[in-house]
Amino acid sequence: MLIDPEAYKKTNAGCVNNTIAHECVHWYKHRMYYRMQEYILPRLAKYCKCYVEQLPYSTEEEIILENHAIGIAPRILMPKNPFLEMAYTFNVGYGKDNRYAIAQLAEFFEVSKQSVTIRLEECGLL
Ligand SMILES: [Zn+2]
């Protein structure tokens, strides 16, 4: 796995951890897609490459794989049951000012506050 050191500088440790989990999803779940492409469509075969911004020349399948990795990585870093347990510990609640709790959860799970917020919404707590 190669992560652009310039991209590293533009972000925080939580984003870096999310990127590592994201690339692990690609390696574990999607490597056979690229391996089979070498055999079936060698002319189109290429390596998996994620961009910080948009994917300018991705196929429809690659966009699906990318969204798959984007969706799974936070769930790996913040598994539902431990995440809910910690959210209740930090007294997260619908309609409350949860900024302090979100910061605490981000620190605990070593992810970004944005990632915590999205995960709280997915779990129905925000
Ligand atoms: Zn990706």
Brief descriptors of the model:
single chain, 126 residues, mainly alpha, 2 domains, 6 helices, 0% strand, binds zinc ion
Structure characterization notes:
The chain has 126 residues and is mostly helical. The protein folds into 2 domains: 72 residues, no CATH class; 45 residues. Helix content is 65%, strand content 0%. The protein is built from 6 helices and no strands. Helix 2 packs antiparallel against helix 3 and helix 5 packs across helix 6. It is elongated. It starts with a helix and ends with a helix. The model has no long low-confidence stretch (mean pLDDT 86). It binds zinc ion. Zinc ion binds next to helix 2 and helix 3.
SSE order, as H and E? HHHHHH
What is the averaged pLDDT score? Answer: 86
Helix content: 55-70%
Q: Overall 3D geometry? A: elongated
Q: Over the alpha carbons, how many angstroms does the gyration radius reach?
A: 17 Å
* Helical stretch tally: 6
User: Termini distance?
Assistant: 34 Å
Number of strands: 0
Uncertain runs with pLDDT below 50, 5 residues or more?
none
User: Which small-molecule species are bound to the chains here?
Assistant: zinc ion
Provide a quick synopsis of the model.
This protein is mainly α.
List the helices and strands and how they pair.
Elements: H1 5-9, H2 13-40, H3 60-77, H4 80-89, H5 99-109, H6 113-122
Bound molecules: zinc ion.
